[in-house]
Amino acid sequence: MINFNLGLTFDSLKTIFRMVLDIFIVWMLLYYAIKIVRTNSRTIQIFKGIALILVVNGVAKFLGLDTVIWLSDQFLNWGFLAIIVVFQPEIRSVLEKLGKSNVFSRISTLTGNEKEKLVDELVTATMLLSRDQTGALISLEQGHSLTDFIKTGTPINSVVTAELLTSIFVTSTPLHDGAVIIQGDRIACASAYFPPTNLDLPSRYGARHRAAIGISEITDAVTIVVSEETGAVSITEGGKILTVNRKQLREYLFRVICGEETEVRNVKPTPQRQLIIEKEAPQDVPAQEYIVEEKAKEQPQETKRDSKFDTAILSKLAIKRHAEAEADSEETTVGEIEIHGPVVEEKTVVQPTAKVKEKKKFGLFKSKKKEVNPQSKEDIEAQTYQALDEEEASIKLPKKKERPAPSYPTQEVVTEQEFMAPIEETIVEDIMAPSEEKAVVDSGKIEEIIKKEMDNANAIHKSQQFTSIKEEKSTPYSGYEHVRVMGDKVPSAQSKVVSEGITSEMTGDEIRKARLEAIKSGKTWNQAKIQQTAPQPVVKDSMTHPIHETNLEDIIKPIEQPKKADSRPKFAMDFNDKSETANINGLTGEIKKINLAELHTTQHKNIEDLIQVDDNLEDQFAMLDTMSIEKPKVTEVLDIKPANKQAGGGK
Ligand SMILES: Nc1ncnc2c1ncn2[C@@H]1O[C@H](COP(=O)(O)OP(=O)(O)OP(=O)(O)O)[C@@H](O)[C@H]1O
Fold first, then answer.
1. Distance from Cα 333 to the centre of ligand 1, integer Å
2. Which protein residues touch ligand 1 with a CB less than 6 Å away?
3. What are the distances in angstroms from CA 10 to CA 3, 20, 241?
4. Which GO terms are recorded in the biological process aspect for this UniProt protein (predicted)?
5. Which of 340, 385, 526, 592 has its CA 20 to 30 A from that of 107?
6. Which residues pair with 101 in a beta bridge?
């Protein structure tokens, strides 16, 4: 008997449980359905259509209209499929949200005092960042987990403090880029990335605001944005952006973090907090300036004033003081985004408790200001402004790193000779200039070389040694003539020539440098030498050796081993009769056939008339040298060109 009764009881409990669960599920479905319908104007229209079909179906059944009944039944029977298709995005987002929602958000696990502290820290940090015009993006996790976004940032996992928040966003620090995500009362990470919104926003909203709106579209997070450009503070939630002042921010955060009826508010507030609550209570009158004026008129009439009252006046006068500066606070609507205004202008540092807290936090809390009983409105204002100035001056953010101004090469006075240099070369020199110390040493050496070289060249010129060279060239060798000039040492063929006038210590390198120097000083090699004996006017067109100019007549042959160089005549010959392109470490030149007949008919006055070094290549090698960059180890073989080459000017 007892067992039977128990069984009944168990069955009935099961039935009751089943009913409750059934109702709960239906209730949940209805709740979300209504939520979707209410938040989406498109769904409202569709639900109106469905309701109309239901009504038509009912009326048709009542009147016995068979065809209409059949038609409306078809609609209703197949309608659910249509609903699934039409509402596919909404259904998906609901399911996603369900999957990611926490039953209890971390904030809800905080105690009243912790919530209150969190609000204070957030407000303080935000307003300090705003005052300093430091851009910031701070997201508060709600029911929807932000773990996916935390993974994109740098984990921090530290208690939220205004100091830490303001430090994170200082632009010279590595973590300032991106968003801070707060879970409960902890900073979970910094530098997180949020998918930006695709909405068409006014141009004043850049990437940061887009990111803030973006995250609010896909999660229920509340995000605070501080504009680097204007210092304006905005909140984004549910795809909307709202520009707020300090008071509105505090209210908003209280609502989000502490809920409507919070533990904090249920706890008997301290006198200071009571003052904030009273002062920050929503005002019916929309224009804050109006309130200021009205109250300002009333207040001086008060005969008794305590410190609380004075503080309230500080706030109100501060509002007035900054009202003019904040002109662009009108309400605008951008697509689905509502930007509310006018922003209630209340300057940031006038909350008594927050003020004291801020000062304490930054170690700047000073002894209380003298409490005077002002005689007139002017006295109050003067006192107020002074207090505000003191307070503003006392709170300091970590210093913003001065961003270096973009540096450009300083404009130098250009002499006529320098001006003749081709632009390309000047630029390359500017960019690639070696250290000054090195340059001085090099140029000193080069001058010496030039002098020596000029003396030697003149000696050669006088001695007419090249007659014999010409004779030697009429050997069976034909085609190209090459001489090695780019190696570390002058190869034997050249050494022979060198021995006829030029000092044997002279290396190909030195010759090259000397030649480069001559080019740079606006002369050709020959002119440099002529100038030694009889100074010549600078020929403007002679400086035709831009670094990028490819002189196709200059010839470079790919690396090859010297073939019995010592036994060859003064200039090594090459039988290569094909043109080809050499590429040595990116330096290219072309091998070109030289007519031997031409070689013989020309008059060779000195060594430079015979040796055509590719100036382009030469410059680049010299540049590598001066920059201490290793030049190609190879010895390039350059063609000899007859004396009537253009650049040399010799005939
Ligand atoms: N998708 C994103 N996720 C997180 N942070 C972002 C994202 N996009 C930009 N930011 C942050 O915003 C900064 C760039 O802001 P930008 O100047 O473009 O924004 P803004 O909306 O014009 O704001 P401001 O008024 O501060 O200039 C970046 O340095 C970065 O810190």
1. 21
2. 135, 137, 177-179, 193-194, 196, 205-209, 211, 227-229
3. 10, 15, 54
4. cAMP biosynthetic process
5. 340
6. 144
Which pair of tokens denotes residue 586? 């990116």
**Ligand 1 binding pocket mutation candidate from 151, 193, 208 (most atoms within 8 A of CB):** 208
What distance in angstroms lies between residue 206's CA and the mean position of ligand 1's atoms? 6
Against a cut of 0.90, is the pTM above it? no
Q: Residue range 123-138: average pLDDT? A: 92
Nearest in space to 179 (alpha carbons), one of 192, 169, 189 = 192
Residue type, 290: Y
Delimit the domains of the chain by residue range: 10-99, 112-258
Q: How far, in Å, from the CA of 228 to the mean position of ligand 1? A: 9
State the distance from the centre of ligand 1 to the C-alpha of 341, rounded, in angstroms. 23
Neighbours of 607 (CB within 10 A): 25
Q: What distance in Å separates the CA atoms of residue 254 and residue 259, rounded to the nearest whole number? A: 7
Of 638, 648, 622, nearest to 445 by C-alpha is: 622
Q: Which atom of ligand 1 is nearest to the CA of 194?
A: 3
Instruction: Give the residue ranges of DSSP H helices in 132-262.
Output: 147-150, 162-168, 207-218, 246-253
The set of residues, in sequence order, having a beta carbon less than 8 Å from that of 353 and lying 6+ positions away, is 272, 273, 275, 276
pLDDT tens track for 346-377: 333 334 445 444 444 444 434 344 444 545 66
Global ipTM = 0.94
- Which ligand 1 atom is the nearest neighbour of the CA of 176? 31
Report the distance separating Cα 573 and Cα 479, nearest Å.
Answer: 7
Nearest atom in ligand 1 to the alpha carbon of residue 214 is: 1
- Closest approach atom of ligand 1 to CA 177: 31
Query: What local confidence, expressed as pLDDT, does residue 580 receive?
Result: 37
pLDDT in tens, 214-254: 999 888 899 999 999 888 999 999 888 888 888 889 988 98
Structure tokens at 226: 């501080």
Instruction: Identify which has the larger pLDDT, 94 or 522.
Output: 94
Tokens 């080459």 sit on residue: 645
128 C-alpha vs ligand 1 centroid, how far in Å? 18
DSSP β-bridge partners for residue 235: 224, 242
Q: Which atom of ligand 1 is nearest to the CA of 135?
A: 26
d(CA 165, CA 411): 43
Residue 227 CA to ligand 1 center (angstroms) comes to: 9
Find the 403 Cα to ligand 1 centroid distance in Å: 17
Residue 342 preceded by cis peptide, ω within 30: yes
3-state SS class at 639: strand
Phi-psi region of 418 (alpha: psi -120 to 50; beta: other; left: phi over 0): alpha
Measured by CA distance, the residue closest to atom 22 of ligand 1 is: 206
Tell me the CATH number of domain 112-258, given options 3.40.1700.10, 3.30.1380.10, 3.60.21.10, 3.40.1010.20: 3.40.1700.10
What is the rounded CA–CA span in Å between residue 127 and residue 121?
Answer: 10
- Cα 153 to ligand 1 centre (Å): 15
- Angle in degrees, 0-180, between the axes of helices 41-63 and 2-39, rounded to the nearest 10: 120
- Can you tell me the distance from the alpha carbon of 355 to that of 365, in angstroms, rounded to the nearest whole number? 9
